[in-house]
Amino acid sequence: MLHQIKIASLESLPEAAREFLSLMGDQTVYAFHGEMGAGKTTFIRELVKALGVDEDEANSPSFSIINEYRSDTTAELIYHFDLYRLESVDEALEIGVEDYFDSGALCLLEWPERIEPLLPDDTVVVKISVDPDDNSRLLSVNIPD
Asked: What is the pTM of this model?
């Protein structure tokens, strides 16, 4: 099922994150697609804050590829992947990406197209697009049946 969330400005990010949380079900792998600068990291950072991760911990894993967070409210593990620098699917296998997916922990992926063949069938696809007229963002969230 396709849902859309409009993000008019940075100030509306917390509300958009809460709306996104209300859509989340049993799926644990979320694949965020969008051009460079579309706001994938910014939205995920706001999302993990809404999940109870300390704001100072929620940052981009650009150099580490994977950041591990723990929710202060639920103690749940959350993995944030930035797969931009991966050269191949084999490289993803070497870092054990499938083990993360199978762990039952929440996995939030930026640049998931780099490892498309490895994504579970029930992956939630999230597309972030930028409206060039007003610089707002539109999240299209496709939750599998």
From this structure: 0.92
